[in-house]
Structures are given as C-alpha cells and as structure tokens.
Design brief:
The protein has 299 residues and is an alpha+beta fold. The chain has six helices and 13 strands. It has a single domain, classed as Endonuclease/exonuclease/phosphatase (Deoxyribonuclease I, Chain A).
Length: 299
C-alpha cells in the first residue's frame, strides 16, 4: 500500500515535469550498516549532438553505460523539440536504453507545431538506477532565450529528485545556469537555489553546468555550502570540461553535502557531446536527518 501511495503522490505532485522508469519501487534497505556508495555523473549532452555536430543519442547512452554511473544529472535535454534531435523524447529514450528511472524538468514548454503532435520541451533531467520517490520542477530566475525582449523572472527547470539509494533518501538536484558573460542572472539563480535548499532537510547532491569557472564570485556561496567533488578527489589536472574538443574551462560540477565522502572523481574523455561528463564516487550515510517528503507533517 505504501508503494502505491508513493507512486500516486509522485504523479499528483509534479505539475511541470515527468517521472518515469520501469516500475518505480523502493530499493532494498542497506544491509547492516549506515554507509553505501553511489556513482554520480553530470553531463551536458548538447541535445544529443556530438562534437562532430551529428545527432546520435546512442553515443550518449554508451558513455553513461560505460561510466557505471548510477545517478546522472543531464542538461540540454530535448523532448520533441524539433529537427535537431529528430523530434525524439531524448530522456525517455535514454531511460529505456539504460533501464533507469527518470525525471524531466522542462525549462521551456511550448505548444506543439500541429494539433496532433506532442508538446515541445527543453530542460534538465535525472536518470537513476534507484527509485525516484518524489520529484519537483523548481523555479529559479531565468532570462529566456526564447523571448525577443526577455526580463528576468522565476521560471522552471531546476530539478529536485528525492532518490531512494539502498534505503537512504537523497535529495538530488540538477541545474543549468545562465550562459551570458554578465554574472547577474547566475548570481540571482544561485540565491534562488540556496533558498530552495533551505526548505529541504537532509544531505544533498547538486550537479550541473554552472557556466562559470571555480573562481567566479557568483559561485562562491555554493563552494561555501558544499564540497566540490573534483577539488577533493580529482586528479592533479584542472578538471576542464569544456569544450570537449579542446577543454580549457571547468564549468561542470558535482557538489555534495559535507557529511558525504567523495572517494574519487574523474572526467570521461568523449566527443559524444560538446561537454565532458564529470563522475564521482560518493559514500552516503543513512541517518535521521532525512529529506522532507511532500505530504509529510512539517509542523
């Protein structure tokens, strides 16, 4: 009965996104002990287009599969967006190929080009080997690329997924910050994310394309709040992730709460996208300080 109620809650709570997968059920609790390991990835997939400009979602699936990543945060995900990605539902296709659960958080959600076509969407997503118990498409400030005269405003596209990792409920966040040289919007976005974090208890993992290098002042609050996985467990390289053809910047990150332990971080060398994916092995601890599930008594 509890599993059924969780499934109903997930479907009823998500106003502007999709949770999917093959039979969402709870994972087995971790046996004897409070620690468990999980491999996490962040990957800007460039709407499935590789550094050669060719659309090939199978390459993306292969990169993820070969990495062994169990929870993946994706950016630049097309869902029936248009010709550049064959009007495919990229996240559904990846989830099916990889036999994973998924949550899609659109940044843009437009009417279809014809009455019988699906909606055109673009955003961020979560893929997970483990069940997604609840998920929310949170809002942060954005300056739309789809409006002729955009104004900064709260908009969707910041994914929050609570994932049951062997009995540990882990809030997992995926973001894609503003790309412009002026840091004003990114600064607002970081502030918005911090406000969302304050409303969610428990240790957290944040991944994404921040479109800024580690020394950028607007990212400082994230470095203060979280552990930078690459800084503590990467190799001696600078960890550049962009561009894949000639990496000169580190703009893709995995951040963890301080109570988590990052055992290892690496960057996968692949031209399946214009970004390189970042991977981290993280040790989680089951404890009493769990996340707030929607519908829980918060009084």
């Amino acid at each position: 009965m509890f599993k059924l109620l969780v499934r109903i809650a997930v479907l009823g709570m998500i106003l502007f996104g999709m949770v999917g997968g093959t039979g969402t059920t709870f994972a087995e609790d971790a046996s004897n002990g409070t620690e468990m390991d999980v491999r996490v990835m962040t990957y800007n997939i460039h709407a499935g287009a590789g550094s050669d400009g060719a659309y090939d979602i199978d390459r993306i699936a292969n990169v993820i599969e070969e990495s062994g990543a169990e929870i993946i945060g994706l950016q630049e995900v097309d869902v029936h967006w248009g010709a550049r990605s064959n009007n495919d539902n990229i996240i559904e296709d990846l989830a099916e190929q990889l036999d994973m659960h998924y949550f899609f958080a659109p940044i843009y959600d437009f009417d279809p080009v014809s009455e019988d076509a699906p909606r055109r969407q673009f955003g961020v997503a979560v893929l997970s080997k483990y069940p997604i118990v609840q998920a929310t498409n949170q809002e942060i400030t954005r300056l739309s690329t789809q409006d002729a005269e955009p104004e900064p405003k709260l908009s969707p596209g910041f994914a929050e997924a609570i994932i049951n990792v062997k009995g540990a409920l882990v809030p997992f966040y995926v973001t894609h910050l503003d790309y412009r040289g002026d840091p004003t919007i990114r600064t607002m976005q970081v502030d918005d994310m911090l406000n969302i974090f304050e409303g969610q208890a428990g240790d957290k993992i944040l991944v994404g394309d921040m479109n800024a290098t580690p020394e950028a002042p607007e990212l400082a609050p994230l470095f203060d709040m979280f552990t930078d996985a690459w800084a503590v467990a990467g190799d001696d390289s600078p960890g550049f992730t962009y561009s894949a053809l000639s990496p000169t910047k580190r703009i893709d990150y995995i951040f963890t709460s301080d109570n988590m332990t990052v055992q290892h971080s690496e960057i996968s060398s692949t031209l399946a996208s214009d970004h390189l994916p970042v991977i981290a092995d993280i040790t989680l601890t089951r404890g009493d300080n769990g996340p707030i599930l929607k519908g829980d008594d918060e009084s």
